[in-house]
UniProtKB/TrEMBL annotation:
Swiss-Prot/TrEMBL keywords: Coiled coil, DNA recombination
Protein purpose: Involved in DNA recombination.
Chain ranges passing through the membrane: none
Signal sequence, start to end: none
UniProt entry tagged with the keyword Signal: no
Family of the protein in this entry: Belongs to the RmuC family.
Name of protein: Uncharacterized conserved protein
GO biological process, any: DNA recombination
Coiled-coil region list: 39-104
One Pfam family here: RmuC
Length: 390
C-alpha cells in the first residue's frame, strides 16, 4: 500500500529547518579558526540531509504518480465491478430457477414412474387374459368391430356379426363377421388368430424367443388349415372364394411371417388371406369406396331414367302446343273470312239504310286479325311435331 503524500510534508519541513540551522551554524563556525573541523562535519551532515530531502521529494513524486494511476485504474474498474454485480444477481436468479425446474422434473419423473408401473401391471394383466382362447377370441372380435366402425360402416347395414349359415358339406358355420358388398356380395372375416406363443415370447430372454416365435408361426399355420377346411365361402352366395383371417396386431402377423416366410403364400393357396389391422383397414376402405361407386351408379341410372321420362313428356307437351298453335291459326283464318264476308256482303247492304235517310248509328268497320301464332322452332320441341301420326 502506498503512503498518503500528506504524511511526508512534516518530514520535508523538518529537513528544511535543519538545513537552515546548519547553514547558520556553518556561518558561525566559519568565523573562528577552531571550528574548521566541526564545519567539515556539519557540511557533511548538510549534504547528507540534502540528499535525504531529495530522495524524499523523489519518493513523494513517485507516490503521487502511483496514487493518480491507482485512481485511474479504480475509475476504469468500477463499470466492470458493476457488471460483475449484475451478473452475480442473474446467476443467483438462474440458480433459483434451476432448483425449481429440477423439482418439477423430479415430480414429473415420479408421475412417469407411477404411470409406467400401472402400464406394466395392465400389460401383465392383459397378457394373462389373452392367454385364454375365449378371451383372445372376444378381444379379436372387438378389435375387428372397432376397425370396421372406424372405416365408416354400420352394423346390420354394411356388416353382420356371428352369422349362421350352412356350407356345401351340410355343416353349420358361424363366421365372426360378414361384410356386405354391392349386388348381394359378401366378404367373410375370422378374428380368432392364435397369440399364446407370441405373448410368451415377449416375456422370455432373447435366446429363448426364436423358438417361441417358431411355435407361434406353426400355430397360425394350423389355424389357416382349420379355416380352409371350414370353407366359409361355400355357405354364402356370390362371395369370393376366400376367407380373411384377421390378426389383431401388426406385430403378431409380422413375427409369424418372419419365422415362416412361406406362410402367407401357403395361406393364399388355401383360400385364406392373412390380414393385419393395416391391411384390413385398406380392405374395408376399398369396400366403402365400392359402395360409394355403386350408389353413384344407381343414382346415375335413376337420373338417366328421369331424363328420358322428362324428355318424353316435353315432347308430348310440344305436340300439344303445336296443335294448339295450328288451331289458333285456323281460327284466325276463319275469323278473317267471316270479317271479309261481313264487310263485303252484309255491312254494304246495311249502310244503304243510312244513305236512304233512316236514323241510326253508323255501323263500325270490323278489322281483320293480322297476328299469327308463333311456330315452335327448338329442335327438342319440333322433333315430335314433325311426326303427324303421333
Amino acid at each position: 500500500m502506498s503512503e498518503d503524500p500528506t504524511t511526508l510534508l512534516p518530514v520535508l519541513l523538518v529537513c528544511a529547518l535543519a538545513l537552515l540551522a546548519l547553514g547558520t551554524l556553518l556561518g558561525w563556525w566559519a568565523r573562528g579558526a577552531r571550528g574548521s573541523t566541526q564545519l567539515a562535519v556539519l557540511r557533511e551532515r548538510s549534504r547528507s540531509l540534502q540528499e535525504r530531502a531529495e530522495r524524499a521529494e523523489t519518493s513523494l513524486q513517485e507516490r503521487e504518480a502511483e496514487a493518480a494511476s491507482s485512481a485511474r485504474v479504480l475509475e476504469a474498474v468500477t463499470p466492470v465491478q458493476r457488471s460483475l454485480e449484475r451478473m452475480e444477481r442473474q446467476v443467483t436468479a438462474l440458480e433459483r430457477d434451476r432448483v425449481e425446474q429440477f423439482g418439477e422434473v423430479g415430480e414429473r419423473l415420479r408421475h412417469v414412474a407411477a404411470s409406467t408401473e400401472r402400464l406394466d401391471a395392465a400389460t401383465t394383466s392383459l397378457a394373462g387374459s389373452l392367454a385364454s382362447s375365449g378371451v383372445r377370441g372376444t378381444w379379436g372380435e372387438t378389435q375387428l368391430r372397432r376397425l370396421v366402425e372406424h372405416a365408416g360402416m354400420l352394423a346390420r347395414v354394411d356388416f353382420d356379426e356371428q352369422v349362421r349359415a350352412v356350407s356345401d358339406h351340410d355343416r353349420e358355420v358361424r363366421p365372426d363377421m360378414v361384410v356386405n358388398l354391392p349386388d348381394d356380395r359378401v366378404v367373410v372375416l375370422d378374428a380368432k388368430a392364435p397369440m399364446t406363443a407370441f405373448l410368451t415370447a415377449q416375456e422370455v430372454d432373447e435366446a429363448d424367443r426364436p423358438g417361441l416365435l417358431t411355435q407361434h408361426a406353426k400355430a397360425l399355420r394350423q389355424h389357416v388349415d382349420t379355416l380352409s377346411g371350414k370353407a366359409y365361402w361355400s355357405a354364402f352366395r356370390r362371395t369370393p372364394q376366400f376367407v380373411v383371417c384377421f390378426v389383431p396386431t401388426d406385430a403378431t402377423l409380422a413375427a409369424a411371417l418372419q419365422a415362416d416366410p412361406a406362410l402367407y403364400d401357403d395361406a393364399l393357396a388355401k383360400e385364406v388371406v392373412l390380414a393385419s389391422p393395416a391391411t384390413t383397414m385398406a380392405l374395408l376402405r376399398t369396400v366403402a369406396l365400392t359402395w360409394q361407386h355403386d350408389t353413384v351408379e344407381r343414382n346415375a341410372e335413376e337420373v338417366l331414367l328421369l331424363g328420358r321420362q322428362l324428355h318424353e313428356r316435353l315432347a308430348t307437351t310440344a305436340g300439344h302446343l303445336d296443335q294448339m298453335g295450328r288451331q289458333l291459326t285456323r281460327t284466325v283464318e276463319s275469323y278473317n273470312q267471316l270479317v271479309g264476308g261481313l264487310e263485303s256482303r252484309v255491312l254494304v247492304s246495311a249502310r244503304r239504310f243510312t244513305d236512304l235517310g233512316l236514323p241510326g248509328e253508323e255501323l263500325p268497320h270490323a278489322p281483320g286479325v293480322t297476328a299469327a301464332a308463333r311456330p315452335l322452332t327448338a329442335p327438342e320441341l319440333t322433333a315430335r311435331t314433325d311426326r303427324p301420326n303421333e
